[in-house]
Write a structure and sequence with these properties.
Shape: globular
Number of helices: 5
InterPro entries: Cyt_c_oxidase_su3_a-hlx, DUF420
Keywords: Membrane, Transmembrane, Transmembrane helix
CATH superfamily: Cytochrome c oxidase, subunit III, four-helix bundle
Organism: Natronococcus occultus SP4
Protein name: Putative membrane protein
Number of domains: 1
GO molecular function, one term: cytochrome-c oxidase activity
CATH class: Mainly Alpha
Radius of gyration: 18 Å
Distance between the termini: 51 Å
Helix content: over 70%
Largest sheet: none
CATH architecture: Up-down Bundle
Order of helices and strands: HHHHH
Number of strands: 0
């Protein structure tokens, strides 16, 4: 069954990517006022990074399960795992953006300046770059899966885009865990 018209996959990918990235950059750039989100208790705001690292670890697991399932020809399991991965990504991003807006910006790095410059910033930059690059690739693979019956997907670029999206996703989520460890464990 076709959920997305095939001829709209490219344009929907572009629109969803632009809107998603605009929201993320607006929140990260302080363009969304704190009054735009409901107040939350301080304990909840402090809990969000810990929830997000658990979500990231779960997403790494579901992506790996989905990748393994498709390599074994288990299409239904692949579909469930990748939709779960997408849901986890949405949950992560929602919590991250909520905290970012509610607290007025990103958390400052509490460690030494040398670690900040030579470890934290490069890791964070690569994490962000891969997350941004992943968005349109992920949307394209997802929309193709929704636009074509399973029997026709091998004739599309879904597998190629899916491999790229999964790779970017895995690395980005992994680097996000490293960023978490630097911010909340090491320092």
């Amino acid at each position: 069954m076709e959920y997305v018209p095939r001829e709209r996959v490219g344009s929907l990918t572009a629109v969803l990517s632009v809107v998603s990235l605009a929201v993320v950059f607006a929140a990260a750039g302080g363009q969304v006022p704190q009054t735009a989100v409901p107040d939350a208790p301080e304990w909840f705001l402090e809990l969000i990074p810990h929830l997000n690292v658990a979500i990231s670890a779960a997403a790494i697991g579901t992506i790996a399960i989905g990748w393994r399932a498709i390599r074994r020809g288990r299409i239904d399991r692949h579909r469930v795992a990748m939709l779960a991965s997408f849901g986890l990504f949405v949950a992560f991003l929602t919590l991250y953006l909520y905290r970012l807006i509610a607290t007025g910006g990103p958390q400052e790095f509490p460690g030494p300046d040398t670690i900040y410059q030579f470890v934290y910033l490069p890791t964070l930059a690569i994490h962000i770059l891969l997350a941004v690059a992943c968005i349109p690739v992920l949307y394209y693979a997802l929309l193709q899966a929704l636009a074509y019956p399973v029997t026709e997907l091998p004739e599309t670029s879904h597998a190629r885009f899916g491999r790229v999206a999964a790779t970017l996703w895995l690395i980005s989520f992994s680097l996000g865990i490293v960023v978490y460890a630097l911010l909340h464990v090491a320092y």
